[in-house]
Amino acid sequence: MAATDLQFPIVMDQGFDGLYGLVVDSIDDDMVLRAHVDVEDRHKQPAGLVHGGLFASMAESTTSMATYYAVAADGKTAQGLSNQTSFVRPIFDGRVNLVARPRHRGRTTWVWEVEVTDDQDRLCALVRMTIAVR
């Protein structure tokens, strides 16, 4: 099954992604993926802002998932190899939005560029994800 054949939105209700409430909204024909998490108190640091680990987790889960669906038909699997997250602006409430775009689709690695934004469409984090394909 290709990623674009899935039924959206996909509410992740199991495993780690289910713990923080990841929702995958869409994947288009160019493999651009959109997802979100609705902010709850459980996502916040003691200072009241969303924990940066949420941004990094969203990026790793979505890019690993999308890569897997792209390579599974060839009998391959995919898992995170590197996650480099730069935090730009905090999010305190509302929704954490994510857009992931593949920048390199290699035989053994895929590299993704991920933008994390808030409800006002302000950039809050940039993530470079490298996914291993085996």
Features:
7 strands, globular, alpha+beta, seven-stranded antiparallel sheet, 134 residues, Thiol Ester Dehydrase, Chain A, single chain
Notes on the protein architecture:
The mean pLDDT is 96. This protein has a seven-stranded antiparallel beta sheet with strand order 1-2-3-5-6-7-4. The protein has helices at 15-20, 52-71, and strands at 10-11, 23-27, 33-38, 78-87, 95-105, 109-117, 123-133. It has 134 residues and is of the alpha+beta class. The protein has one domain (3-133): Hotdog Thioesterase (Thiol Ester Dehydrase, Chain A), CATH 3.10.129. It has two helices and seven strands, in the order E-H-E-E-H-E-E-E-E. Helix content is 19%, strand content 40%.
Give me a quick take on this structure.
This protein is of the alpha+beta class and 134 residues long. The protein is 19% helix and 40% strand.
Average predicted confidence as pLDDT? 96
Helical residue percent band: 10-25%
CATH superfamily heading: Hotdog Thioesterase
Give the CATH level 1 class: Alpha Beta
CATH topology: Thiol Ester Dehydrase, Chain A
The helix/strand class is: alpha+beta
Number of helices: 2
**Largest beta sheet: what is the strand line-up?**
1-2-3-5-6-7-4
